[in-house]
Amino acid sequence: MERRYAGGELGAGQGPSQPAPARDLGGGVRAAALLDLLPELGEQLSPSDWSRARLSSLVQVEAFGTGEWVPHVARRHCRPDTALLLTDGVLVRELHVAGRAFAELLGAGDVIYPWAAPTSARTPTATWRALLPGTLAVVDELLLARVAPYPSVALGLARLATLRARFLEALAITRRLRRVEPRLLFVFALLAERWGRVTPDGVAVPLPLGHELLARLVGARRPAVTTALGRLRERGALTQLDDGWLLALDQIGAVTLEPHGTLDPT
Amino acid sequence: MTDAPSVLDLDPGLAAVLPEGDRPAARAASPVCARPLAPGEWDAFAEYGGREDWLGLLLAAGFLSRSIECVGETVSEILGPSDLLRPWDQDGDYPVPGIDTKWRVLEPATIAVLDGEFAARIAPWPPLTAALLARIGRRARWSALRLLVSQIPGIEIRVLYLLWHFAERWGEPRDGRMLIPVRLTHQQIGEVIGAQRPSVSHAVSRLREEGVAQLPGEGWEIPADAPQAIDRLLGHAFAAPV
After folding, report:
1. ipTM of predicted complex
2. Where along chain A do its domains lie?
3. How large is the angle between the packed helices B186-193 and B155-170, nearest 10 degrees?
4. Which CATH class, in words, describes the domain spanning A2-167?
5. What top-level class would CATH report for the domain B150-239?
6. A117: which DSSP letter?
7. Cβ neighbours of B149 in A, within 8 Å
8. B144·A100 Cβ contact <8 A
């Protein structure tokens, strides 16, 4: 049974003493150990299991640059249940309908299914682009077969997949805030939790988010976002940097959201 | 031998990902604890918090809602058969204070407990693990779509779009129509599509012309040709100032 599903092309059968090679497979694709790319997936393993699981966790990895993104790796792995695990960089997934757009940001640890069947016959097709260059790893049945002796790896993948849904659920809250300023602060608090770096001046969020993209994240029009950003800048709450944004520290820990979208820094 | 049901019998969609010849062995290896849930509030996090070493809770039957309450507003997600829940990952603290998460059983439900031991037992059948992981991905995509729908101008199209999506996933064909077997209130629909209850009630009354009906004690019914109505309403929405 296991032999049927076991993959052989990426290092299966190597002895545990042999280091897992990260090697070029051509066409912009390389092989690497998933546990090296995302060490948190191996946190529950004993040291001896970790070494073996690392060897078993070889995956195909593809790099992408900024701009429109097409899942090249996918052309050879297009089963609906084949996932791509973002190991570095930032992707934007956008949906458009009736002149409206919604954008989702995806970063390291997010799991995507670009070839899954649409959730509905009336589901708009998603478009993708890379905001920051990065890498993607193929999570398919071959990988799951190789790591089958280490179920905590699959459990770690389930946790990562859930966090994407959790982020989206949090974004839904912004839609119930009437004013754009608290929507923006709320979203930046979420982004800071994920991508933020604490500096003496505040939390730096190193994402090149333009006003249009922010509007699609928070569900507002771009002019309204531009106006709100101006007000937040005047208050010292949010500042645009060359390579991202700076969120004042007191806007994360001490913000109280109140009914009807008012915001009360306490 | 055990009397516990196999997850393949509780969720035939999982059996379908395996070659027929593999199913008997996979079925024997995949008994699960199936737990009934009665309608009403359900404190999923209290009961199943801290289960990071579990694969999840598979909703085998019935319907649940997961609601996030914040600033006096509520946003909800409806979960139905074949959805996979992980309350221990979903319901933790958010970076902004004042956010509360609540679960509610909308229709009598059955959850299958997919614990760490279960994950190990099904590991020899990677398509099963892949299918369960994909269930989580599907929830994320639906959440993204729901966010988009909540931005469409016009509550009618939002309501119809939502009901059609539910019909595609969980609908039961009946006399050329689709029955959605969950008794969603106007308030709950509003919490899903980002609208106030009175607006939903107004939209529902207008959608009667499109054949949408709320059936007391049963759920909702929509015509099988609802997609055409969606396209027509979307056309109107598209023509509106955006």
Report:
1. 0.89
2. 2-167, 175-265
3. 100
4. mainly beta
5. mainly alpha
6. P
7. 97
8. no
